[in-house]
């Protein structure tokens, strides 16, 4: 409670303590077994997965597969390790979406921030709130979900995205449904725009490796399972999740990839749940097996510079 600034009344306290104790048992049981990743307590440890899902994941079904994408792969060989955080000032710090299924906006801005920085040398934090408020005509649903590829289309057709500073994140809208969510985009303040969106052909994980190696970080979506909520470190993999486009419920950003000493290949992924979660806000997930559908709908924008 003190670590994550949680405050409960007496009744709520006992209810949360029961959930916390059960989650603690799940974590200890998992860590006592032979797994490629470890779990730990975090800011979600007092929540059931049902509650977590409602507050943090995409609740609207997403139809995200690009059966034939437009990314053209170069030829290998590919290096063993790629990490855009180490290549220069190309990745913004981990952000926190709060109680809102707006991960798709953070995946979008994270990718466009990097793409723009690689093209111009300037790393500018961009506005998630503009996407929540303004991109609804592109089949996005604010705090209920959306897709990076559709957000890139909005930015392209809308002629730009403002900075986080000029259009700040108001965050959790589940808690404040009456919150003003009208669009406040000012074209004169657009900081970046998008020439086009590049979809990577569905389930072509090699093309994702190609794009991350030679071009820039890429967005992807996958299905979050209950154990992922407790992820702490190591290479996440699951035998429970599905690997199809219709089951994805979370959007994130692949900033690189590597291989464990054990030989296990993984993606290096930027999440939007703050730095207290996972590896300072990042996680590794098994690469090469379309784990949890991560290769179902990956995309990135072309910068208009």
List the helices and strands and how they pair.
Elements: H1 10-32, E1 37-39, H2 49-56, E2 82-83, H3 84-87, H4 103-120, H5 128-134, H6 148-158, E3 194-200, H7 205-214, E4 218-222, E5 231-236, E6 250-259, E7 265-270, E8 282-286, E9 298-303
Parallel strand pairs: 5-8
Antiparallel strand pairs: 1-5, 2-6, 3-9, 4-6, 6-7, 7-8
Keywords: Disulfide bond, Hydrolase, Protease, Thiol protease, Zymogen
Organism: Channa striata
Pfam family, one: Inhibitor_I29
Description:
With about 300 residues, this protein is α+β, with helices and mostly antiparallel strands. It has seven helices and nine strands; from the N terminus they run H-E-H-E-H-H-H-H-E-H-E-E-E-E-E-E. The chain is globular and about 55 Å long. The termini are far apart.
Oligomer: single chain
**Mean pLDDT metric:** 93
Number of beta strands: 9
Q: Structural class of the secondary elements?
A: alpha+beta
Q: Approximately what portion of the residues adopt beta-strand conformation?
A: 15-25%
Helical fraction = 25-40%
Rg calculated over all Cα atoms: 19 Å
* Count of DSSP-assigned helices: 7
Unreliable sequence segments: none
Give the end-to-end Cα distance, rounded to a whole number of Å: 47 Å
Shape: globular
Largest β sheet strand count, sense and barrel closure:
7 strands, mixed
Series of H and E elements: HEHEHHHHEHEEEEEE
């Amino acid at each position: 409670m003190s670590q994550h600034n949680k405050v409960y009344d007496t009744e709520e306290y006992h209810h949360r303590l029961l959930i916390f104790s059960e989650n603690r048992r799940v974590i200890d049981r998992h860590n006592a077994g032979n797994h490629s990743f470890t779990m730990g307590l975090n800011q979600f440890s007092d929540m059931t997965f049902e509650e977590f899902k409602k507050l943090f994941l995409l609740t609207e079904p997403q139809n995200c597969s690009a059966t034939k994408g437009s990314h053209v792969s170069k030829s290998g060989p590919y290096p063993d390790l790629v990490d855009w955080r180490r290549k220069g000032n190309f990745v913004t710090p981990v952000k926190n979406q709060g109680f809102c299924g707006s991960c798709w906006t953070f995946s979008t801005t994270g990718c466009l921030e990097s793409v723009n920085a690689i093209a111009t040398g300037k790393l500018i934090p961009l506005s998630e709130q503009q996407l929540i408020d303004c991109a609804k005509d592109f089949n996005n649903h604010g705090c209920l979900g959306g897709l990076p590829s559709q957000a890139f289309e909005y930015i392209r057709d809308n002629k730009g995205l403002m900075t986080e500073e000029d259009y700040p994140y108001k965050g959790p809208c589940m808690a404040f449904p009456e919150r003003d969510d009208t669009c406040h985009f000012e074209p004169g303040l657009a900081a970046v725009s998008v020439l086009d969106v590049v979809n990577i052909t569905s389930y072509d994980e090699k093309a994702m490796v190609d794009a991350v190696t030679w071009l820039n970080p890429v967005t992807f979506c996958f299905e979050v399972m209950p154990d992922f909520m407790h992820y702490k470190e190591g290479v996440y993999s699951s035998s429970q999740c599905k690997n199809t486009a219709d089951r994805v419920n979370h959007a994130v950003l692949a900033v690189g990839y590597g291989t464990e000493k054990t030989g296990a290949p993984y993606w290096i992924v930027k999440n939007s749940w703050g730095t207290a979660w996972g590896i300072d806000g990042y996680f590794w997930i098994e690469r090469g097996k379309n784990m949890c559908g991560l290769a179902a709908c990956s995309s990135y924008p072309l910068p208009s510079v």
